[in-house]
């Protein structure tokens, strides 16, 4: 009977039978049982926790071709340590008329042998899970001491005698070079080209790629922060390679460049990117396009949560919603009285008046509370007045700064009037109008709510604020509601 041998050695068990020993024992077993070994499949330093092993899969493929009649393995755990995988692999081998022989486990070919084999498989699965738990427990214990756990040592460090990170004088300069180049404004692509041209390599000895370079740029270990999964985080636990100010500057640049790249890719075609929101879930709506069966190209704004099946908001046509918003913006800047109001609102004196009104309303409300009138409505109103007061104080401080710099109401009005004579068909002009004047746009089934930037409050109005204003019958400041 033609037979093959499958041998595996796990690097996690230094005391287990080596591959050479397994092969030698397999030769003895074959000679004693009248088997002729025609091939040997060997996976070196491979875990048995799953069957995703090159030689093991090759053996299964050859079994399907009926290339041999018997398989010789050291123990049951060479087939796999997960009972489901063991059963599946044994099924495939049996289906192809391959009989399994175990060298170190005497399993008789009897009904009792079937029970014994199941018990042995269960013990192998138990051992595998226990080994995994012990490894994880040991890694957590090492992490609590800020020690290396094997896979968490980044480029620029070595493992010292106490298993703690120490700076590697050979590779640490590469890390510093990466941060210096990025902080100076070089792109990811430029830095990769420079590093690879110099012959510098990753911790795995490979040329740098986009992913490997970003891993270096985002690793907090370079400023001394040790972290292990989401469980452990220890400050000042590692000797730093990069200065904190350089590291945090790079993090801000990464965020800005990532946002700028997305901004560039999307805003080239869709004017309302980062301005348009879904009325059902409050998520941002982004531009998408598709081709119909006639070959025509159609453009829409699509709720990002709809892709995750978390929202059923229907897409809206790009041309329709952009024209609607642009028409309202153009109507706004052609209204001289409204521009006068905006300039006045931006100026210091109007803010002082508004602040005085809020303070007066607060004083009146306090008198009512002192008189014993206190309920949910008065509490809510007091909270609203407090928020308004804080906003006005911030706006007043900014306006005072403009006044100190010599910026007058006339200057603001002159700036606004420049938009009256612009070419509204020009895409660059349209982008500028929406960027400056539009705060947010919420699309409902029966209306569109547009909020404008009439003040120094540059935050985006939220769906909660929009809905609260509509429910109370109050229009939000700087907003209009367009009924469909």
Largest sheet: 4 strands, parallel
Helical segment count: 15
Number of strands: 15
- Outline: elongated
Structural class: alpha/beta
pLDDT averaged over residues: 78
Share of residues in helices = 40-55%
Radius of gyration over all CA atoms, rounded: 35 Å
How does this model look, in words?
This protein has 484 residues and is α/β, with parallel strands linked by helices. The chain has helices at residues 19-32, 54-64, 83-95, 111-144, 172-183, 188-197, 210-217, 244-267, 318-333, 336-346, 348-370, 376-404, 409-417, 427-437, 463-471, and strands spanning 2-9, 36-44, 70-73, 99-102, 157-159, 165-167, 226-228, 232-234, 276-278, 285-291, 297-303, 316-317, 438-443, 447-452, 479-483. Helix 5 (172-183) packs across helix 8, helix 9 crosses helix 14 and helix 10 (336-346) runs antiparallel to helix 13.
């Amino acid at each position: 009977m033609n037979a093959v041998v499958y041998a595996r050695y796990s690097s996690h068990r230094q005391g287990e039978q080596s591959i050479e020993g397994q092969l030698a024992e397999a030769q003895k077993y074959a000679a004693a049982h009248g088997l002729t070994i025609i091939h040997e499949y060997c996976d070196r330093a491979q875990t048995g926790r799953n069957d995703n092993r090159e030689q093991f899969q090759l053996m299964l493929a050859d079994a399907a071709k009926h290339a041999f009649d018997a398989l010789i393995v050291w123990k049951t755990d060479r087939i796999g340590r997960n009972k489901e995988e063991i059963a599946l692999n044994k099924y495939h081998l049996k289906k192809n008329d391959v009989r399994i022989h175990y060298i170190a486990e005497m399993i008789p070919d009897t009904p009792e042998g079937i029970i014994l084999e199941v018990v042995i498989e269960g013990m192998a699965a138990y051992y595998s899970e226990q080994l995994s738990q012990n490894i994880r427990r040991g890694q957590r214990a090492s992490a609590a001491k800020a020690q290396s756990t094997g896979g968490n040592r980044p480029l620029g460090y070595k493992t010292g005698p106490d298993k703690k990170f120490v700076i590697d004088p050979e590779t640490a300069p590469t890390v510093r070079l990466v941060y210096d180049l990025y902080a100076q404004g070089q792109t990811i692509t430029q830095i990769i080209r420079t590093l690879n041209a110099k012959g510098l390599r990753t911790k795995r000895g490979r040329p740098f790629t986009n992913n490997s370079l970003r891993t270096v740029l985002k690793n907090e270990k370079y400023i001394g922060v040790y972290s292990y999964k989401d469980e452990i985080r220890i400050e000042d636990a590692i000797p730093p390679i990069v200065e904190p100010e350089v590291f945090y500057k790079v993090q801000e640049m990464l965020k800005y460049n990532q946002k700028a790249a997305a901004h560039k890719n999307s805003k080239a075609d869709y004017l309302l990117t980062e301005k348009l929101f879904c009325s059902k879930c409050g998520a941002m709506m982004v531009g998408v396009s598709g081709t119909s069966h006639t070959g025509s190209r159609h453009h829409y704004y699509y709720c990002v949560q709809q892709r995750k099946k978390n929202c059923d908001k229907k897409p809206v046509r790009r041309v329709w919603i952009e024209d609607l918003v642009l028409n309202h913006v153009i109507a706004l800047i052609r209204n001289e009285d409204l521009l006068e109001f905006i300039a006045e609102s931006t100026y210091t004196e109007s803010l002082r008046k508004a602040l005085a009104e809020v303070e007066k309303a607060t004083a009146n409300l306090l008198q009512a509370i002192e008189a014993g009138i206190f309920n949910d409505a008065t509490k809510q109103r007091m909270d609203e007045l407090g928020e308004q007061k804080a906003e006005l104080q911030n706006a007043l401080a900014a306006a005072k700064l403009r006044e100190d710099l010599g910026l007058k109401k006339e200057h603001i009005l002159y700036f606004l009037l420049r938009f009256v004579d612009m070419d509204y068909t020009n895409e660059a002009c349209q982008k500028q109008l929406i960027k400056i004047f539009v705060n947010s746009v919420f699309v409902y089934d029966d209306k569109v709510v547009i909020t404008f930037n009439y003040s120094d409050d540059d935050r985006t109005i939220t769906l909660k604020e929009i809905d609260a204003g509509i429910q109370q019958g109050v229009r939000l400041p700087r907003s209009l509601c367009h009924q469909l």
